[in-house]
Amino acid sequence: MKKIAIVYWSGTGNTRAMAEALAGGVKDAGAEAVLVETSQAKPDEVLAADAIALGCPAMGAEVLEETDVEPFVADLCAKGVSGKALALFGSYDWGDGQWMRDWEERMKTAGGSLVAPGLTVHLEPDAVGLGACADLGKKLAAG
Ligand SMILES: Cc1cc2nc3c(=O)[nH]c(=O)nc-3n(C[C@H](O)[C@H](O)[C@H](O)COP(=O)(O)O)c2cc1C
Question: Where are the beta strands (DSSP E) in the chain?
Answer without folding.
Answer: 3-8, 32-37, 51-55, 85-92, 113-114, 119-122
